[in-house]
Amino acid sequence: MSALVVENLTVTFGRFRALDALSLAVDPGEIRAVIGPNGAGKTTLLDVISGITKPVSGRVLIGDGIDLTTRSEAEIAKAGIRRKFQKPSVFPALTIRENLEIGCGTGLSATERPARIAEILAETGLAPREHAQAGALAHGEKQWLEIGMVLASNPRIILLDEPVAGLSDSETERTAALIRSLRRLDRAILVIEHDMAFVEAIADRVTVLHEGRTLFEGSLHGARADSRVIEVFLGR
Amino acid sequence: MTGRAEILSTPSEAAPARPAAAWRRDPLLVGILVVIAAVCLGLVGLQPAPYLVNAIGQLAAFAILAVSLDLVWGYLGILSLGHGLFFAIGGYVCAMHLLAHAFAVTGVAPDFVQFMGWTALPAYWAGLTHAPYALALALGLAAAVAFVFGLASFRSRVNGVYFSIISQALVYVAMLLMFRNDTGLGGNNGMTGFPLLFGYPMGSAAVTTGLALAALGTLAAVLVGTRALVAGPIGRRMLACRDDETRLRTLGYGTTRLKLAIWCLSAMIAALAGVLYVPQVGIINPRVLSPDLSIEIAVWMAIGGIGRLGGAVIGAVAINALKFWLSAALPEAWPFILSGLVLVVVLALPNGLLDLATLRTRPTWLRGGAPR
């Protein structure tokens, strides 16, 4: 049974079809990368899954048959789905620790939180700066803090929108290692990324989107050999 | 909005890693509480001139009103340009109590009752002779109006400038309603001529001092209470909601209930300010509901400093003290002085007067290329 199923999803903005009857299934334990040129609908897909955008038609189902398109953002998050945004979205007025505390969500009790926060601080290497204000962090630290906020609640579906955008090569490598370490049998991870080396390092399968539809699904190696993918990426 | 939030949240370069506890200790607030205590002692011990006592009491009421707006604007990013509505609800209910009480004691019908050719107070004035009921009605009515308006707005995700404009429209509609003479609330003349407070003659030194002390005491309690709220987990969620509501929602927190609760609390605090203001100024009329008064509350805060509670107090007290003085000395110049102040603050002190405390000896743009 799939962890996340996207069925015939259509999203329009005015006359523009951002997603056009898109279907997609992610297995438990899988890391799936979604790639595609700008405007292919990658971020829109994550917006629908996390409840920010409502589709014209179609459904998004998770393991227990809940249709996410009828739920609010908070309800979706409570169902165990977390998302990292493209622009690092941390709360600038709060400290790293306070950000992570909020990241723990409503599922963790006040007694469980300190231990979980300590784990995340160690995993992300942010422990020495736990009382620093998030607004004052460097870009890479903000990216990691947001990943930490997303992980704090132990989500079963993780959506990552360009997690290594703007990171240095060494930071990108560390991030890839972190994401690989998150792989669990009961967890599905969906990553949007432009950095193909990074995709190669983490993804089990890739989905290539183009104009709101699936162009290709399979291994990254297969995608690179696919004539339609080459045409879309290299110009028409 | 976003720009302001970023300005507010950008810490000075000299403070990289402060412990959270130190951030929560607020010397500004402690200073203001000490000043309030000193003023209270001064009122009792020195017995200053009644007009001064009265002015201090009114300033305290304005400060409470400013704190109520700071709670939603500074900490939740909701700029209300209609907070005069809640202030007026408190003020009107208080005026109703004072008139009903005087009618019951003296038997002389209030002016507007005679003017309308009635013999008794309208039915919905029943029970207002009782002060606790009047207080509960003022707070409850403000909360109820805020709840309905807030629920409609926050549920349909009306935010930012749209919310501000609608709140402004709301206070304007209320003003038009209150200008009608048949509402039983005094019409365009409003309500005035309050002879008694709890049976004591209004205007006596004891009543004037008592009212000022009550306003100052309430201000101190409101400051301590709101400070405890914003320094705790709810306050952190408020700041998170202010800076990135979508992020907070996608972490599993419904923000509508949080915003609604704080919005209603803010309305009740504003109503409390109105309750304390009206017996001191001796009149309430629909002009309290004029949109420019509601905008002025935001101006006090912008001048004092947003999102620090203490800044709201400083702004409200400084601007209104200046207004008391100048609108008597130079009445026609006051609007120009206020506008000029706004310009100076916006250009030179983007966080309001609180910036003065952190001003360096030479402004950043004069220091030129200092290595970091």
Give the overall shape of chain B, derived from the CA principal axes: globular
Main pleated sheet of chain A: 6 strands, mixed
CATH class call of the largest domain in chain A: Alpha Beta
Low-confidence stretches of chain B: 1-24, 360-372
What topology, given as strand order, has the largest sheet of chain A? 5-6-7-3-8-9
Secondary-structure-derived class of chain A: alpha/beta
**What is the number of independent domains of chain B?**
1
Question: How does the overall form of chain A come out from the CA principal axes?
Answer: globular
Distance N to C terminus of chain A: 38 Å
Count of beta strands of chain B? 4
Secondary-structure element order of chain B, as H and E?
A: HHHHHHHHEEEHHHHEHHHHH
Which regions of chain A contain 5 or more consecutive residues with pLDDT less than 50? none
The whole-angstrom Rg of chain B is 22 Å
Instruction: Quickly give the CATH architecture of the largest domain in chain A.
Output: 3-Layer(aba) Sandwich
Strand content of chain B: under 5%
Enumerate how many helices of chain B there are, as a single number.
Answer: 17
Mean pLDDT of chain B: 85
Helix fraction bin of chain A: 25-40%
Side by side, the strands of the main sheet of chain B go 1-4
Structure explained in plain terms:
The complex is a heterodimer of chains A (236) and B (372). Chain A is an alpha/beta fold. Chain A folds into 2 domains: 1-80 and 156-236, P-loop containing nucleotide triphosphate hydrolases (Rossmann fold); 89-154, no CATH class. Chain A has helices at 42-49, 73-78, 96-103, 113-124, 139-151, 169-181, 196-202, 220-225, 227-234; strands at 4-13, 16-26, 31-35, 57-62, 81-84, 157-161, 188-192, 205-210, 213-218. Chain A has a 6-stranded mixed beta sheet with strand order 5-6-7-3-8-9, sandwiched between helices. Chain A has a 3-stranded antiparallel beta sheet with strand order 2-1-4, with helices on one face. In chain A, helix 3 (96-103) packs parallel to helix 5 and helix 4 (113-124) packs antiparallel against helix 5. The longest helix of chain A is centred in the middle third of the chain and has 13 residues, at 139-151. Chain B has one domain (27-356). Chain B is mainly α. In chain B, the strands form 2 sheets. Chain B has a two-stranded antiparallel ribbon with strand order 1-4. Chain B starts with a helix and ends in a 5-residue tail after the last helix. The longest helix of chain B is centred in the N-terminal third of the chain and has 27 residues, at 50-76. Classes of the chains: A alpha/beta (236), B mainly alpha (372). At the A-B interface, helix 2 and helix 3 of A face helix 1, helix 10 and helix 11 of B.
